[in-house]
Amino acid sequence: DVKVTQSSRYLVKRTGEKVFLECVQDMDHENMFWYRQDPGLGLRLIYFSYDVKMKEKGDIPEGYSVSREKKERFSLILESASTNQTSMYLCASSFQGRSNEKLFFGSGTQLSVL
Amino acid sequence: KQEVTQIPAALSVPEGENLVLNCSFTDSAIYNLQWFRQDPGKGLTSLLLIQSSQREQTSGRLNASLDKSSGRSTLYIAASQPGDSATYLCAVRGNQGGKLIFGQGTELSVKP
User: Fold this and answer.
1) Residue B39: per-residue pLDDT
2) Do B43 and A108 touch (CB under 8 A)?
3) Total H helices, total E strands in chain A
4) pLDDT digits (tens, 9 = 90+) for B8-53
5) Contacts of residue A101 in chain B, CB cutoff 8 Å?
6) β A73-78/A87-94 pair status
């Protein structure tokens, strides 16, 4: 079974802190994604990556950056955390190609910024 | 711009009922459509993926259909059980590639 592991289940940080959210997948997937999920707003794509060292902005990249130094690991960085970044963060991965593009999600990180 | 809508936002049914969840999308030029399940406070689990050339996919008590021309997909759940209680989301990927566009989800409650 595919496993997408997010390093923290719950995280509490202070305004202005630099925050790292880590995601690791074990199925050699090319694609990796970071979403945030908020009540009433649904899932919104922050950043995605199709390959090592490659990144693309999603719908709401402001205030975030990402790093993909290895194929299995995709990190989301909050450069200076703000209270409006309090949210559930979900990492996902998938193969490329038409026949097997099922998206697999991690369990999520509930981040609170105080 | 693709928009995905799921109505109703919430649904409550007694155990044993067959039920249908709806998903509609505005741009019929899709690459594929996925249905997901999300339990409270958890990540999403992919249930079914339908390619643009397919009409339906089945997995156990679940059957998903796709009608691209009308911009609709349905998820049919047979003989519902309390363990089916969760939020169900659909998501479409457009032909231009890249990201999935998610609906807001339908929160299903199956009462014993």
Assistant:
1) 94
2) yes
3) 0, 11
4) 999 999 999 999 999 999 999 898 999 999 999 889 999 999 998 9
5) 32, 49, 93
6) unpaired
In angstroms, the CA B91 to CA B102 distance is 4
**Cβ A48–B98 below 8 Å, yes or no?**
yes
Chain B positions touching A42 (Cβ under 8 A) are 89, 102-105
**Shortest Cα distance, chain B CAs vs residue A5, angstroms:** 11
Give the separation between CA A11 and CA B15, rounded to whole angstroms.
Answer: 37
What is the C-alpha to C-alpha distance for residues A61 and A75, in angstroms, rounded to an integer? 14
Q: Does B96 touch chain A (CB under 8 A)?
A: no
Distance CA B3, CA B27 (A): 8
Interchain proximity B102–A42, CB inside 8 Å:
yes
CA-based angle A57:A61:A63, to the nearest 5? 145
Shortest alpha-carbon distance between residue A28 and chain B (Å): 18
User: Can you tell me the distance from the alpha carbon of B101 to that of B43, in angstroms, rounded to the nearest whole number?
Assistant: 16
Say whether the peptide bond before residue B112 is cis (omega within 30 degrees of 0): no
Minimal CA–CA distance to A52: which of A77, A74, A85? A74
Residue count (chain A):
114
What tens digit of pLDDT does each residue of A15-74 get? 999 999 999 999 999 999 999 999 888 899 999 999 998 999 999 999 999 999 999 999
